[in-house]
Design brief:
The structure is a homohexamer of 272-residue chains. Chain A is of the alpha/beta class. Chain A folds into two domains: 186 residues, Rossmann fold, CATH 3.40.50.300; 79 residues, no CATH class. Helix content of chain A is 44%, strand content 14%. Chain A contains eleven helices and eight strands. In chain A, strand 3, helix 4 and strand 4 form a beta-alpha-beta unit. In chain A, helix 4 packs parallel to helix 6 and helix 10 crosses helix 11. Chain A is globular. Chain A starts with 5 loop residues before the first strand and ends with a helix. At the E-F interface, helix 2, helix 4, helix 6, helix 7 and strand 6 of E face helix 11 of F. The structure holds adenosine-5'-triphosphate (6 copies) and magnesium ion (6 copies). The site of one magnesium ion has 5 residues of chain A, from helix 3.
Chain lengths: 272, 272, 272, 272, 272, 272
């Protein structure tokens, strides 16, 4: 049932922001200046939609590498907006769905949004909605054309709409003319070494003395830049699994400090 | 319902020119000589259709970069023509529609036009009607062929028709043989620095002393040429959003003068 | 049966040659030796079909640039032939039609022609019947194959048929094997400077003293060769439209002499 | 009705060899040694099928340029074979037919042939049955596969079958694996200058003194080699048409001697 | 009816091995060491399937040039195996059949085989089952995938299965991943000069003194290697046909000795 | 519901692990350090899924050459996990199935898994599920997109899921974005010479003195690296078949020691 994919969220002071919250299982951590600026620009757009008469519709694309935190950021802003209508469209409910079914769901989503005076729509992982694959490349032109029209179509008089899209394929979107269909395009960065260190410190994932070497070990596996989602996955791997190398200590509040040896061994395993 | 896409406009002294007017949310500003010449050439064509017996049908393509003002110009001329039948065809009502449905709508549009002695049709954003995407490239050949036939088909004896098309892909249209299907092709330019300055002055967007530096800041972001639509969007962004950098002043008539600092900061944000 | 065929196109001294005549809204003007030779070769073919027993079917392709006058020439010859059955097949009635529908119409056209002892069919703008577009390229192979068969199929014993096709894509037709499917292929030329001058003189479009400079101005816009159809369109543009540059004078018989200034200004406008 | 395409021919001493005879409207003329050898090799194959127990099925491809006389040759041999079952399959009845319909007709043709002890099938212009076009290239793989199977399938015990195919695209057939599916492949040549002269002499088309110069004029238009079908077409053109250059004389038996001047003028017309 | 394609063969001591025997119209002749080794390796596989518990399924591909004797060899081994279930799958019954019908027939064939404790399946001319054509290339991926799954699927516990496939396109099969789907791949060679001589001697096709020159003449036409099937075809051609060059003598047992002159003339005819 | 899930796969100490066990017809042999590390990393993932709250879903890709033992390894781990729900998805049941049917089966599989608190799914030979073929390449984008969504979709609150996929085409998966859809990707190696020797020793396949030369002979055929599945196949071939070269001795426990001569002869046969 495609209705499933249209996860309606009641007003923010209401109860059902759960769906957006499930996009932030690891919370939102400020990793520095770049993050703050991203959030502030986005908040300006939210404000503009709420207030301006000349721009009843604004569209913003969050683009960045896999796992850089796009979905979580969009969800956090949707909750913060406190718009009466906020919805998340993912592909989760579209497994095996036809192009026609997707277009219908997209059209319905926008029509529903038009019913509220101010609305916010998150189109998550647009390449998945487009069934994009780099070999060929192939994708659903039917869905793409639907998006290109919907992203440029004016809401009915008196209605306002902010659309946030996410993608990890900005170059492909360029070729598709999708980038140009968004008013604003913002980059969600992967973590630099110092940002990584800030996140790990904030999490208390390591004993303070181990932190520098934990960061170094990570860089050896992943290179200079780490997607924040991958960082959380690696920490969780190190925290669990078989205990032969050095147990991680439970620090009571559900967080467990990871022993440096275990961290290094775990990274080495994955590097093969 | 595809009927929605066929936005009938009553005689110009009538009431329902709203749809064409919604294409000009920011009004029409004369930015200089080029604009005047464009308008005058178009008016000649309108006159020719009204009068000549030998050319019962004329077709004109407005081509120019994204946001250069093609749709607004076509709409303005449609209103000015005061033809008894003027219609705007966009893709807004065709989300997920089949090729067949589009062809049928196109054929019906022309047949409706033939019923009035003198008619004007605007085919807006033809590449969207064609479901064009540069990857491949792909497009609906069925719709293209329908257009190629309709644009060359003589109206019934005694009927006259002016067709105005808009596109931002003149080179692609060349390959499709669509350019050749139009009698006349006119370029809608993006704004040069002096034209930009003229528009900003006319709008009173900045204090007169700030104008030169406001223009310079803009050029730094966008390069020499600015699409007029983008210019309006940027002004609106600078006028709203969070207030931490310098408030814009409301000047009473709904226009608000933008502080230079705020303008510069806003442009810098988008440049990332 | 034969009566049906008579209902469709009456003998040439009858009434319903209108459709062919609408292809010659601007009449037929002899622009010189090349035109005379074209007409005479075509008349030989008409004669051969009428008389020869060994060649019951002849097929002739008129190929030439866009607007060179192919359709008008085919129509003029169809009328002149005075064959009991003459028909024009264009794409005008096929907007959005399926390939199957086109094949059926083609097959029916030939079957109808076989019912008359001597018939002439004009297949106008064959590339449009084929839904050809240069990108790809794409076209209807189903329609192409139908044509290839029909153009080589012998009429039933005692029946004779002349097929005249028109196209502006002779090179593409070569690749399609369509050229080879025609017995004869004739080139319809664009006008040379002296031919242009002859046409303008014949039309009395300019004062005699202005004629040389009118021709020069035209060449500056279009180059050495002008399609005759475009020449008529430009004249009509210069004759109408807004009057700010020099009014054209109505010379009574419906033709209006064009002032040189106005002609030059009009050409300059289109050159942008 | 696809039955039309399957033109059944009664035993040779019967009456309905008409269809094969219509393939030879201009008769069969021996143009020299090459022709004699072609015929003799083909007759050997007919004999082998009639007699041998080890090769109940033989398949032979006649390949040669357009108009080289492939169809006429195949038809002549079919008549000569006096097999109880001889059939001609062309595309004439398949205009707009589906691939499935063609396969069905092919399968039925072979099944019908299996019902007679000794049969001969002519598959004329196989590229047309395959709906081949060089652009792409495109063709019906469904029909091709059907042919590949049918051409290798053994007839039921006690049945014998000779299949003659014709094509002007031997290189394409190579790529399709169709050449290899035939046991024998024979080339049908275009006429050399001396062969052309022999045919013209045999026909009495020119006064004997004009013959050498008539041949020279032809070579100037067509080059060294002339397809025999084209030769007949040119003769017929010269014999008819308008009379301004030199009348051809009717020599009583239906053949008319062509005046040299007229021949030269006619060739020049087509050369443009 | 696709059932036709599934030619069931009763136990070898039974009666209906006819279908396999029709694949060997010219018998099986041992042309030397290579042939013996091929047969012995194949017999080992038959033995392994019959006996081993660890390899309940074995798959073997016979690949070699057109006419090299693949089908005959597979058929001979199927008969020799005396397995209770042996079946031959060819494309003979699939003319114009859909991909789905083929997959269904394939699946049914394997399911039928699973019902017998030990089975042997011959998949003849797999490229034809796949509707392969080199232009493109095109083929039925649906049938290919069905084969790839069926060739790796374990039979139910207690059942054993040997699959023999034949193809003349081993390189294409490599690209398709079909080679890798077979446990063993064996090459069926064309005849070397000495092997050819051995076959001709065994057949008594020529007088002993003529044999060396008969072989030389053959090599001149075909090059060093002759497919055995072609050798039989050429012999049969030489034995029949018109008698002008030297009659072949019937030697009583149905074999006829071929006169050397006739052999040479026949080869020359085909070489053209 | 939960009972349904229990019906499908009983707890590991139950009875129906047969399907996984049939993937290990030759048992699991530790061939050295690499194998041990592979198993231990996989066991960590199983542990993490069982315990961690932050990563309710983990996905792991086992990639390696054909026959390297991927399926057997996945099966062994599924049994070892003792999860209440473990299922194997292969293409065995999908011969000729539509893309839609596959997507539905995939979606159902995940939905079934969500019904158990902790589940493990093996997606075996994913390229076969995708109907991948290198020519083109072609594959089912519909199934691919379904996989890409399902592999990233969070299980419902409180449910946990480990997905193990296998493939021999890691580079293709990279292009498809499938690698990135798995949290972890592990390489299953082919056997090095010393690992091969270890396996053969463990199996007692040869007399100890023959082992080094048996290994050398193998390397001559296969090169440095041997897929473990192929090693077992070769051993079985050498153990059976015709006896002319040296009988293998049955050692009582069902294993038979292979004579070196026989081994060498068997390898030579396959090398041709
Ligand atoms: N400042 C932050 N920004 C974004 N995510 C954060 C931040 N701090 C913590 N996170 C956590 O990091 C994870 C980011 O994952 P998310 O799914 O948003 O990435 P993504 O870029 O959408 O990945 P994908 O490319 O797979 O769609 C979430 O679990 C989120 O709770
Ligand atoms: N002289 C002018 N010409 C055109 N537009 C103008 C002019 N003056 C002001 N405008 C305003 O500029 C905007 C032009 O946007 P418009 O949608 O017409 O551009 P466009 O070229 O059609 O864009 P797109 O490429 O996205 O279709 C309108 O809001 C219009 O009111
Ligand atoms: N000698 C002439 N030959 C052809 N057309 C002529 C001639 N004299 C005048 N005309 C006029 O020129 C115009 C020729 O246009 P026509 O539609 O036949 O060109 P076309 O080559 O078919 O164009 P297109 O390529 O668009 O199909 C007609 O209006 C016709 O009346
Ligand atoms: N010796 C001959 N061989 C073949 N045709 C001959 C011969 N003598 C005369 N003809 C005549 O020449 C013509 C040959 O035309 P035919 O249609 O057989 O050529 P084709 O190669 O099949 O042409 P296409 O390539 O168009 O199919 C026929 O009219 C036939 O009567
Ligand atoms: N030793 C032999 N091996 C194979 N065929 C032989 C042998 N001796 C005689 N023959 C005969 O040679 C012919 C081989 O033809 P066959 O159809 O098996 O070849 P093929 O390789 O399957 O051909 P194709 O590539 O057309 O499928 C048969 O008629 C068979 O009776
Ligand atoms: N350590 C081991 N790891 C894997 N397989 C082993 C091991 N020891 C023995 N085997 C046996 O080796 C065989 C491995 O074959 P398996 O089908 O798992 O390979 P695969 O990589 O999945 O092959 P394919 O690429 O064909 O899918 C099985 O029969 C298994 O019992
Ligand atoms: Mg995301
Ligand atoms: Mg527009
Ligand atoms: Mg025309
Ligand atoms: Mg022919
Ligand atoms: Mg074979
Ligand atoms: Mg496997």
């Amino acid at each position: 049932d495609f209705e499933l994919a249209l996860l309606e969220v009641k007003p923010a002071f209401g109860a059902s922001t759960d769906l957006f919250e499930r996009c932030m299982l690891n919370g939102m951590i400020s990793y520095g200046e770049k993050y703050e600026k991203l959030v502030s620009t986005m908040e300006s757009l939210i404000e503009q939609v709420r207030v301006s008469e000349k721009t009843p519709m604004l569209t913003c694309l969050l683009e960045g590498g896999a796992g850089s935190g796009k979905t979580a950021l969009a969800a956090a802003l949707a909750i913060k907006s406190q718009f009466p209508f906020t919805k998340l469209l993912t592909s989760d409910g579209f497994v095996g769905a036809s192009e026609a079914a997707k277009c219908q769901a997209l059209a319905k989503l926008f029509d529903d949004a038009y019913k509220s005076p101010v609305s916010l729509i998150v189109l998550d992982d647009i390449e998945r909605l487009l069934e994009y694959v780099a070999i060929g490349p192939r994708f659903s032109n039917v869905v793409l054309q639907a998006l290109l029209v919907l992203l440029k179509r004016q809401p009915p008089p008196g209605r306002k709409l902010l659309v946030i899209g996410t993608t990890s394929l900005p170059l492909v979107f360029e070729d598709m003319g999708l980038n140009a269909a968004f008013n604003v395009s913002l980059h969600v960065p992967e973590l630099s070494p110092s940002e990584t260190s800030a996140v790990l410190a904030e999490l208390g994932a390591f004993d303070a003395v181990d932190l520098p070497r934990a960061c170094q070990a990570l860089q050896a596996l992943t290179g200079d830049r780490v997607p924040i989602k991958r960082l959380f996955m690696l920490l969780e791997m190190a925290r669990h699994g078989k205990d032969d190398l050095g147990d991680s200590m439970d620090v009571g509040d559900g967080r467990r400090v990871v022993a440096l040896d275990r961290w290094v061994a775990c990274l080495r395993d994955l590097a093969q």
